[in-house]
Amino acid sequence: MKPTTILKLFVFPLCLVPLALLAWKGFHDGLGANPIEVITHSTGDWTIIFLLITLSITPLRRVPALNWLIRFRRMMGLYAFFYGVLHFTTYIWLDKFFDLPEMIKDVGKRPFITVGFLGFVMMIPLAVTSTKWAIRMMGKNWASLHQLVYLSAIAGVVHYWWLVKIDITKPLRYAVILSILLGWRVAVWAMKRFRAQAAPAALSQSAD
Asked: Rounded to whole angstroms, what are the CA distances from 15 to 18, 72, 78, 172, 188?
């Protein structure tokens, strides 16, 4: 068995620890006076955390010793979707009791719910097309579609920022990390573009 396969067998259940801790608290009266709020915030936190982990794998794999991390990117993305589903389910089930008219009113009237809902919706096609079969069938279009992860992560951070009213420590921390990860991608894109434009000029000068 390959080392990465063995590591996956360890990482997979490790990613379920936040859910296990939440369940343990639930069975031991550890969710406080407002358990729905605790579950909502916890699942929302881990959705953003796994999105940020997913986005951090690409820059980290540039380090030769960490190139193996790419094998975990899909797993981290699917766990982000998994916790996103739990977050959304908590809202529609425990908070709104499947009251569709009330949910539609919420999405239209409360901006943080609107942007959070959009962020979750954008994660759905990413999860559906995360299989090897989908990657082969979509070809280059797969990479274009999966750029939605950036918008989904931005929506998640904005959703959290607009939700809190006083202490913005957590959303600010997430926003800083996301800004660094997106800034790195912009810098890489700009560098590639500069090199692509500089190459013909260099060839032209050498020909002269």
From this structure: 7, 12, 11, 24, 30
Residue 120 has pLDDT above 90, yes or no: yes
- Asked if residues 95 and 28 have their Cβ atoms less than 8 Å apart, the reply is no
**Cα distance between residue 12 and residue 71, in whole Å:** 12
207 within a domain of the structure (yes/no): no
pLDDT digits (tens, 9 = 90+) for 21-68: 999 999 988 898 899 999 999 999 999 999 999 999 999 988 888 888
Domain range spanning residue 162?
Answer: 3-199
The verdict on residue 53 lying in a domain is yes
Q: What pLDDT is recorded for position 54? A: 96
Q: Give the separation between CA 116 and CA 36, rounded to whole angstroms.
A: 17
Q: Is the Cβ–Cβ distance between 121 and 92 less than 8 Å?
A: no
